[in-house]
Amino acid sequence: MRGISKSFPGVRALDGVSLSVDAGEVHFLLGQNGAGKSTLIRILYGAHHPDAGEILLNGEKVRLASPADARALGIAVIFQEFSLVPYLDLAQNIFLGREPRGLLPGTIDHRKMHAEARRLLGSLGMDLDTHALAHELGVAQQQVVEIAKALSQNARILVMDEPTAALSDHEIDRLFTQIQALKASGVAVIYISHRLQEIAAIGDRITVLRDGRKVTTMAAADAKPADLVHLMIGRQVDTTYRHQFCDQPGAVVLDVQKLEAANGISGATLSIRAGEVVGLAGLVGAGRSELARAIFGADRVTGGTVRLNGRALDAGPVRAVRSGAALVPENRQTEGLALMRSVQDNVLVAGMRKWFPSGWYCARAAATIASDVVARLSIATPSVARVTRFLSGGNQQKVVIGKWLTAGSTFFVFDEPTRGIDVGAKAEIYGVINRLVADGAAVLMISSELPEVVAVCDRAYVMRDKRIVGELQRSELSEANILRLAMHHE
Amino acid sequence: MKGLAYRLIAVAAIAVGLAFATDVFLTSANVLNVLRQASLTFLIASGLTLTILTAGLDLSVGANVGLSACFAATVMKATDSVTMGVVAGLGFGALVGVLNGLMITLLKLPPFIATYGMLWTLNGVTYWFMGGETIHGFRPGFRALGSGYGLGVPIPIYVMAAFLLVGGVFTRYTTFGQEVYAIGANREAARLSGVPVRARLTLVYILSGAMAGLAAIVYLARLNSAEADIGEPLTLPAIAAVLIGGTSLFGGVGSLTGTLIGALTLTLVVNGMNLLAVDASWQPLVTGAIVILAVWIDVITRQRAEARV
Amino acid sequence: MNKGAAYLLAILVVVFAVFGSGFATTANILNIGVQSSVLLLLALPMTLVIMTEGLDLSMGAVLSLSGVVMATMLMNEHRLPVAVGAAVGVGLAFGLANGLLVVALGLPPFVATLGTLGIAQGLALLVSGGQSVVGIGDALPALYGREPLDVPFAIWVAVAAFVILRLALSKTRLGPYVSAIGGNREALVLAGVRANVYHVGVYVLAGAMAGFAALLLTGRMSAGHPTAAIGMEFDAVAAVIVGGTTFERGKGSLWGTLVGVLTIGVLKNGLNVLEVSSSLQVASIGVLVIVALAIDSMLQALKQRRHTPARAA
Predict the structure, then answer these.
(1) Which CATH number belongs to the domain containing residue A166 in this structure?
(2) How far apart are CA A398 and CA A425, in angstroms?
(3) Interface pTM (ipTM) of the complex?
(4) Taking CB atoms and an 8 Å limit, are C117 and B299 in contact across chains?
(5) How much is the pTM?
(6) Structural domain containing residue A463
């Protein structure tokens, strides 16, 4: 792929990206969420068309107008969200759209289909009943079916998106064996993963994307994980990073003991004091968002306790909010805002009880309150009546924060607060966080940007595999230490 | 606001058109009749509006009105007390609302199929309850509620106006109303903002049922009789009224005022067809076509809004 | 609910056989079959529609309209095959309309088909002038009254429809593709299949079979009546849901629907024998649907709790 560029409304997803992959190699594609990996793959798969650039297969230029074209040329993708149909059996899933024809026109030769399916699965070392329905299988098995599906298409290029995210160690080993077999037969594998430790196991080369551009391509042997993390995240221009660290934290605001949750969190214990900004670091998939959601009550808690200012949070988001908790989610558009509603409406939604305790709502008073918050946070909007959808990413984030300011929250959970926001707005958000804790609030900040964690947080917990594996005090807080704890192997 | 203005203009246009098309339209008798009928439709559709605002739906309103009216009529006759009958009707409507609310929040059934099942259950119970009989002949005082005039204006219009006022205040000037819109606009974001979603939804369906109960009372007063099938033709026009009025099936957008305008529009169209001596069989056809058109406009409006960034 | 539906049916049969005199006779069993035949013709395609996460509320009205059209044509002394063709044609037209509204315009199915319900109902009233259309001649009643091997014609037709549709689903691509539309439409599109065509096709089939069912309905009544089939779509939906097909993920089974149809038929018949009023029968089916949905919902919730979530953030 050469010089691929692609823009969507409001966003330049890819800017002149080039990627070349050889037969029989496993080529890692690295980058943060939003770096452009998904878009690049979708273009390779024919689901999107590039605005600029070209794709060459074996030296020949090709045009991929649709997924069918890509398939015909031997390109297969295994997405993170599997493309299996839950109530069809394995053979039907593998041959969806390409069923072998039977005797009568329009019929399917089931015997042939199942025999072939069995053969494919067998070649991957799996002995599954091809009549089983897809939804009956575990995740690892479903993934093997996906690979079989790709093989059945005579794929020469196989793209795997986060293949090991939900696999056990044993299953990962088996997958790697299968990948080795694929390599040996000349298949090129483009491998997207956040698990840097896997590079040593099967990687040949690595390409790093950041903010829609290619940063570098290198041999796997030359790559050190710490360097890769830097390449993925990059150094932002330092503006007003927080300098005032909290020497005298106040009373304990949040106290979490041995928290267990339905989303996989287990044994989480942590505490946060007033005036602190505590970081929650770790690699993607470590479970940071899950922990935050469990604390907030957004996901179901199955064990342990969460106490906020002494009050137990065991009754979902309603109790959490009323006790003073605030959640600024990672997906601000789908979980933090009602995009079709105005700035005013979004800002007031969590503060109803506080500002209108009698139940009577006065739009004028609400407008005043909202204008206040807009001014305090410097939200760029022509008026509080503006529909939130039209605001920029940074301003949308400020609206979410404004919502919690209005609610008078004292404990804030920020999940990737500055992701996808331009540098200027980032600085403003750090300023907001500063002011919050100066006024006595407590903040838990999830961030994948190591420099951000080091510069903004008083201390940090590090997570790995849904557990807290360490706590770093101010003096110990460094990118190297975070990475050391966050990664599986040294 | 802009949308409402356009709709109001459409209503005026239809009215003007009809005034030209037939002399009978602009007579006071006819105009009052139209307003009376629109009021009745509005009452039924008002609770429905609330449920649709939350991105839900209450398909059982028509059947609820039918059964509540029959129940109220029976109680009224049995106790010879208007008050008891009114309480019975309102209470029963609300009860149906409670059941709907529980199905949707507790059992987490999709609203359209849950209320669809309720619709037929109520239907069957109504026929069984009435046993093929008709109840009629209520006290004049009561009948005035539906057929009477106050200062030359049909009483149902006062009821409707009161309702619009109360309902409008409710949706716009209470925190509950704000939360309803929030839930319809983005249910998960509302939940994560501390809005007690399940409690609010249950209440919304209870209100929908209660308003159906109230509509049943007024309806009963107007018809002066109750039989098993009075609820059947009510659901489709109610849905049409809500959709024409600009309330989106996808939630978060709409208002009671819009529903009133929608009810007016629909009633004008039906009235026009009657005055122009169009076969009554055309009415379900036209209503059906209007529903499809209104939903289509809703879908397109949605798509356009989401495309603009 | 698949096995559950079968158990329910068995329980109902036993209960009614014990408590209802005259239930367990050959004549009554055949009666149930005949009564259920029209419903089966409606419920079979409804299964497919629901498997695609859709709904067709217009089937009852379309059936009434087709019946009226067929009766009118017979009354005007057209030949039977022509009249049947006309009925099916009407159904096809409505099916196509529904399919286009849902797939091409993206309207929510229940509202779109609610609208076409009104249109079909209105047309039925118009064509028939609000009256029954009688005087349909002898050809249809004669055909309907035939009993090859002592089994009524209606049952033969229903069984044939079941067999044909079942074969089509299991032997051709229709089955997998319909399940995929509901289960993972994206996967189907990515596989290069014209999902839209199959999606519209499901609604076209529903309409066509509603039209075809007019053969049995008009035959049974020896007339066409504009409101004859009001509410049958609800019975069809109920039969499908009781039979275990749900609104998500493409799960569905024609056998389940057959059991569901028989369950409703047995329930109605048994309640009749026990002299329960027909309106309570309707109510009981409503309750049955809600209970079936509730059970399915609770089972889903239980399954969710047992599985640890696979995907990390």
Answers:
(1) 3.40.50.300
(2) 9
(3) 0.88
(4) no
(5) 0.88
(6) 252-486
